[in-house]
Amino acid sequence: MTLVSFVVPAFRVQGYLRECLDSILAQPVADIEVIGVDDCSPDGSGDILAEYADRDDRVTAVRLDRNVGLGPARNIGLDRAVGEYVWFVDGDDWLTADCLVEVAARLRETRPDVLIVDHVRAHWDDTATRSAMAEVFPVPPGAVTFRLAERPETVKLLHTAWNRLVRRQFLADTGLRFAPGWYEDVSFSYPTLLAADRIGVLDLVCVNYRQRRAGAITRTRGERHFDVFEQWHRVFRELDRLGAEELRPEIFERMMWHYLVVLGNGDRIGPELRPTFFARVAIEHARFRPAEGHRIPGGVAGLKHRLVAAGRWRTFSALRTASRAGETVRRVAGGTRLRVLPPARLGVRRARDAVLRQYQRTERRRPVEENLAVYAAYWYRGYTCNPAAIYEAARRLAPQVRGVWIVRRDRVHTLPEGVEYVVAGTAAYHRTLARARWLINNVNFPDSVRKRPGTVHVQTHHGTPVKVMGLDQQRYPLGAGGMDFAGLLRRVDRWDFSVTSNSFSTQMWERAYPAGYTTLEVGYPRNDRLVTSTAEDVLRLRAEFDAGLGEQVVLYAPTHREHLPRYRPPFDPERFLDALGPAGLLLMRSHYFHDRDRRPPPVARARVLDVSIRPRVEELYLAADVLITDYSSAMFDYAVLDRPIVIYAPDWDAYRLTRGVYLDIVAEPPGPVARTFTELLDVFRSGALRSPDAEQARARFRERFCALEDGRAAERVVRRVFLGENPV
User: Any idea what DSSP says for residue 467?
Assistant: First the structure.
């Protein structure tokens, strides 16, 4: 018999769902099942569940045709469960490694109706805070079970569904299910404790409770938070039905704690709703107050209780205002104490920069130029990537928009003729940034750029991520390179649009860069050229490298290792040319982080070309017959051409552990995988490059990552961003 059925509801959790499912399926316990319920999610959550169900027979995917809410979605999963116990895990949380081993052992040893496990709050800044478990149970209960009347302090543990496993037959016998509406955990968790004969507590952290920066219900203002009152009404109806009057004081105390938490959270109850919510709390206090009295907490919490009982909203509000003001003073004072001023450095450049920054601030006071768009790419390295493709489409579709590029002084010569530009750091640069209505970049603009009302910032990114990015890098400090994550989030908060090339990228960016932007999942504008180029275009590009029709052109494009900046994968061009044969040409391209100043090892033959200085990588893709790469996003772009791709990953194990990855590119490659240079040579000598297995792998890869690449991505961006349309 299946021991544990995991029910995982999914709604707008595409950025986190894979981590949740992986954490469950990786547990070293065999007798489990996972029932994923797509609650008609508007993002890719349903597709992720279906993907996992296709490749793992322990997973069942249920797709609902309308949104029913978290509680009913859990009920639907419960109805399909066959396990002895049910564990409701939210799709944006994840389990700790190997926790199910101890959970399963405790279940088999004690056979509880309810087993509560410990958790931590996993914050977006990679910090964690413990639960109240140690405070509620200073001495862990151990492998025993009890009724709630025997250990009433149990109600002080967090009342969520995901920190407890419930015996499925117990739920069937009692008829307990989730109610609709927000705060559905309340009317499920407390009644299960009231009805259970055997409650167990396992003081083992099993759940990482994700504290999302954006998109969480607990950070969404609105009237839906008033649902909490009806959920608590259900709890008291169940208390009355079970005749558990002796537990009324504990349940009442917990209810008041919860109401005051919701009322005090400005992310939930806005100022306009706070007086009404307070009035409802006062009514609830009078309605459910135990006749024999109840415990009033000490300090400020007790004062709040008494003010609620007396219905004194103005005093309550003044207390809250004074408390928040005190917190602000303490925070500012603390910041002042910790502040260390840098030593004074006088110099012409510093003074000039200060003057120019002040000039930009002055320019920001002037009106925004309604038809001005500023473009940049790779920290002002030149005219390239997605911004260049959008610029070209805008010139055609929105000619009223004046486009200006920002480039470094040493890259001005790389600009195409007729492209208007400003040099980074000049007065014209500061003026353009301050006055532009649209700002388009494939990286972030500097911190000195301020988001003005009425301006639109478009983040195009520059690749589908294999390695972890953004906030996810906090877990891999070797690859983070001393990143300022708070500063990163300030920059991300400027985004209005995030352009993505596939649903996988959308999911990863949502989790790596949590903010309130709108995702444009339209394909990558720079890849339009790969789709629309003709055979004549390809021949012309190949001719630039003196590559004939019968010559096999191989492009080798490894990625950068932030954690090992001097590392280069072992690659011997001479030996590779021998394996390639007499009709072969090798193009070698370094990562842009190297500023294209590194050259491949010298060779005796002219059939090796360093193409690092070419600004448009799409031209290299079109000219090449084969791509060799490791963990670079180049593979996703090159796959658009449906030509052979070889993954050369000699340091895969170390890279995955130290840098972190979103995708197991060795397990799900777009073609043959070589872990050593000898294996790479064998791929070309043996014909594995174009074997049926390689063709099938590439087809699967293209279906997953290239479905949107139809040659119109730039047009879709222009129509949405500049013209305000919603193109299909």
Answer: B
The pLDDT value given to residue 479 = 72
Helix (H) or strand (E) holding 73: helix 70-80
> 32-67: per-residue pLDDT in tens?
999 999 999 999 999 999 999 999 999 999 999 999
> Which range has the worst mean pLDDT, 192-196, 284-288, 357-361, 423-427?
357-361
Q: Which of 147-151, 556-560, 606-610 has the weakest average pLDDT?
A: 606-610
Determine the average pLDDT of the residues in 544-557. Answer: 90
Q: Decide: helix, strand or coil at residue 309.
A: helix
On the CB side of 323, how many CA atoms lie within 13 Å of its CA? Answer: 12
Distance (Å, whole) CA 266 – CA 264: 6
Mean pLDDT of the 79-89 span = 97
pLDDT at 2 over 90: yes
The Cα–Cα gap between 545 and 619 comes to 11
Distance CA 379, CA 382 (A): 8
d(CA 644, CA 689): 7
Report the DSSP beta bridge partners of residue 451.
none
Q: What is the pTM of this model?
A: 0.78
E strands of 124-198, at which residues? 128-130, 164-167
Secondary-structure breakdown of the chain: helix, strand, coil percentages, each rounded to the nearest 5: 45, 15, 40
- For residues 213 and 124, the answer to whether their CB atoms sit within 8 Å is yes
| Residue 545 φ then ψ, to 5° | -105, 10
Q: Of how many residues is the chain composed?
A: 728
Tokens found for residue 39:
């609650």
Two structure tokens written together for 44: 């890719």
Contacts of 364 (CB under 8 A, 6+ apart): 434, 450, 452
Tokens of 142: 């151990």
- Look at 138 and 318; give whichever has higher pLDDT: 138
